[in-house]
Amino acid sequence: MTLTLPMVLIAVVGVFLASFVDAIAGGGGIVSLPTYLLAGLPMHMALGTNKVSASLGSIASTGRFIKNGYVTWSLALPAVVLALTGSALGTRLQLLIDEKYLQLLLLIVLPVVAFVVLRQRSFPEEPGEISPKKQAAVVLAAALLIGSYDGFYGPGTGTFLLLIFTRWGKMDVRTAGGNVKVVNLASGLSSMVTAMLHGQVFWQLGLIATVASFAGHFVGAGLAIKNGSRIVRPVVLVVLVLLAVKVLSGLL
């Protein structure tokens, strides 16, 4: 495949916007994958190249959250293991079940999730009261469950983790964001290696887009850390709407 200027321009703009959104509230893949398809990449290569720019770019946002002390390593590390396990299980399940059934389920779930987000005026700026054992149970169960969803279908994984970590895990929005970034980074790097081994990466475009992804993640993470719930809540709602549109378009 030959790299062209229009291809680069489409990828750089789309990936920057996707990464900006992803750093704040997750769900960047809803924007970045269609960007690569619009740039002219076939589906499998678009998926693989997207993993390169998304995973390497997310190092920027993950690093900012770690630097500011918003990662609970005692929870994040086992959550990574369970998310990777769930992802492998989800991928196997995908081979057995038509994904349209999951899309139909999402059409029921998404309005409920949006209703929950709208009901709470803001994401918590301070951690809530919860026992360490209960918080660990919530975080690890979510990592396994949503990790399975990620392997089966994928879009919105970070957003769902963020919602669960804040609502039921009682984390403040910044700590929840930091832990989500660590889990997503590990999962993304694993997928990137798989795509690379199968030769489904357009490296020239992927590495150029990685620069845009890094910039988007860096700026987005900075805004999330500085503004907290004021910026996370509206971006989460935008991601949920985009995900609903993607599911509907897939069914139609």
From TrEMBL:
One of its GO terms (cellular component) is plasma membrane. Keywords: Cell membrane, Membrane, Transmembrane, Transmembrane helix, Transport. It is a multi-pass membrane protein. The chain crosses the membrane at residues 70-89, 101-118, 138-165, 201-224, 231-251. InterPro entries: TM_pro_TauE-like, TSUP. It is found in: Cell membrane. Belongs to the 4-toluene sulfonate uptake permease (TSUP) (TC 2.A.102) family. This is Probable membrane transporter protein. It comes from Oscillibacter hominis.
